[in-house]
């Protein structure tokens, strides 16, 4: 859709990236790190002061003690962290529960490891997990459950109820959890992020993956990290050692000091919530029915009042005809399930959102 957007000079609310600039001080810190000579490999686990600062952050936010030596590894992005975790533990024939719609790397990553994705639809239109259904999908071969909260593409978030259900489900089993929390700070309306890091009994069976790109508006940096129990992290590092081995050094040095400024991440939820609310207000006269977005920087909308086209056809048509690019949500389902829903990314300058809304209101 980004290619089509460029071709038709459309306003692009499709792909998930901000169009506003990142913090300039953080850029200066990277420059400084380079000029100070941090241009060679850092250790395979990542720059130690960064891992230490992350452990402090986890303690502050989730009241959990993480050992920076044995439980954190810096990675080239969240997607890589997820792939590495899966590769570390999956065996051919293992079953992995994935909720759809799902971030596009999950299914191919599971399949590349010879494992079998067991796909479960989130309940439309709230996109909640049907835990009764999940129970029926667990077998002796279930190796892992993949979670993503706040959720791409829907903006749904896990609640304490979900955590209780998850806990009951995995109790007395060997089921592992992969928790994709790249949008951990993008959560709205005063709701607390239900990080797996809050729950020691769940963390002991989990890989939890994060992305600096999503937190600091620099998706192109491709830097993230994984947190897991020491025995899991040992396996994770066996894969990482012979793949990427060591990530971009100056960015790690810069982030180690920038992360001390708690406001840089604590203010994020409020900042994106304002964008969400602004976008919702702008669309109040449009014929789209917006679904609830409680987190992430995405909001989905039904277009049943406008058309009964397939969502892919609809998304392509409005890009060409009205100059507005979005993502059809069927793209996040292996079987292409089409509920006539498209996804907007609202991590955009207010003027971009305004331009987009003017076009959307005409449809
Ligand atoms: C749910 C989810 N996980 C992971 C990622 C990837 O993060 P990164 O760019 O750090 O690999 C994204 C990016 O869109 C995402 O939406």
Concise account of the structure shown:
The chain contains 15 helices and 13 strands. With 363 residues, it is of the alpha/beta class.
Q: How would you classify the helix and strand content by structural class?
A: alpha/beta
Quote the beta fraction.
15-25%
Number of helices: 15
Q: What is the total tally of β strands? A: 13
Give the low-pLDDT segments. none
Please tell me the overall pLDDT: 97
Strand numbers in spatial order across the main sheet: 2-8-7-6-5-3-4
Radius of gyration: 20 Å
What is the overall shape? globular
Helix content: 25-40%
What's the N-to-C terminus distance?
18 Å
Summarize the biggest pleated sheet.
Answer: 7 strands, mixed
- Ligands bound to this protein structure: pyridoxal-5'-phosphate
H/E element sequence: HEHHEHEHEHEHEHEHEHHHHEEHEEEH
What would you note in describing this structure?
The strands form three sheets. Strands 2-8-7-6-5-3-4 form a seven-stranded mixed beta sheet, with helices on both faces. The protein has a four-stranded antiparallel beta sheet with strand order 9-10-13-12. The chain is of the alpha/beta class and 363 residues long. It has helices at residues 2-7, 24-35, 48-62, 78-89, 106-112, 131-137, 160-170, 200-203, 212-215, 230-241, 249-258, 263-266, 268-282, 311-322, 350-362; strands at 11-12, 72-75, 95-100, 116-121, 142-148, 176-180, 206-211, 224-227, 289-290, 298-302, 324-325, 327-328, 341-345. It has 15 helices and 13 strands. 40% of the residues lie in helices and 15% in strands. It is globular and about 55 Å long. The structure holds pyridoxal-5'-phosphate. Pyridoxal-5'-phosphate binds next to α4. Pyridoxal-5'-phosphate binds at residues 16, 77-79, 103, 148, 152, 180, 182, 211, 213, 219, 222, 224.
């Amino acid at each position: 859709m980004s290619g089509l957007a460029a071709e038709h000079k459309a306003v692009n609310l499709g792909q998930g990236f901000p169009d506003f600039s990142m913090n300039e001080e953080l850029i200066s810190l990277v420059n400084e790190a380079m000029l100070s000579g941090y241009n060679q490999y850092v250790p395979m686990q990542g720059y130690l002061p960064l891992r230490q600062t992350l452990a402090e952050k986890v303690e502050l936010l989730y009241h959990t003690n993480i050992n920076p030596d044995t439980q954190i590894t810096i990675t080239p992005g969240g997607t890589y962290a997820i792939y590495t975790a899966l590769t570390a533990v999956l065996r051919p024939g293992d079953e992995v529960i994935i909720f759809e719609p799902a971030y596009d790397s999950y299914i191919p990553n599971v399949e590349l490891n010879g494992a079998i994705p067991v796909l479960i639809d989130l309940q439309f239109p709230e996109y909640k997990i049907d835990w009764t259904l999940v129970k029926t999908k667990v077998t002796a071969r279930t190796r892992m459950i993949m979670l993503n909260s706040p959720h791409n593409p829907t903006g749904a978030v896990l609640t304490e109820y979900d955590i209780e259900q998850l806990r009951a489900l995995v109790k007395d089993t060997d089921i592992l959890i992969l928790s994709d929390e790249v949008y951990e700070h993008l959560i709205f309306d005063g709701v607390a992020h239900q990080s797996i890091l809050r729950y020691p009994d769940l963390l002991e069976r989990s890989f939890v993956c994060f992305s600096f790109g999503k937190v600091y508006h620099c998706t192109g940096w491709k830097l993230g990290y994984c947190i897991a129990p020491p025995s899991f992290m040992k396996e994770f590092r066996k894969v990482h050692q012979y793949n990427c081995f060591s990530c971009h050094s100056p960015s790690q040095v810069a982030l180690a000091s920038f992360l001390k400024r708690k406001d840089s991440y604590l203010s994020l939820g409020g900042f994106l919530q304002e964008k969400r609310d602004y976008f919702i207000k702008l669309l109040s006269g449009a014929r789209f029915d917006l679904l609830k977005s409680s987190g992430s920087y995405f909001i989905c909308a039904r277009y049943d009042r406008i058309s009964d086209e397939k969502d892919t056809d609809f998304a392509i048509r409005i890009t060409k005809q009205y100059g507005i690019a979005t993502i059809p949500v069927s793209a996040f389902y292996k079987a292409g399930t089409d509920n006539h829903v498209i996804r907007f990314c609202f991590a955009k300058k207010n003027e971009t959102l305004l331009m987009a809304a003017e076009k959307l209101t005409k449809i």
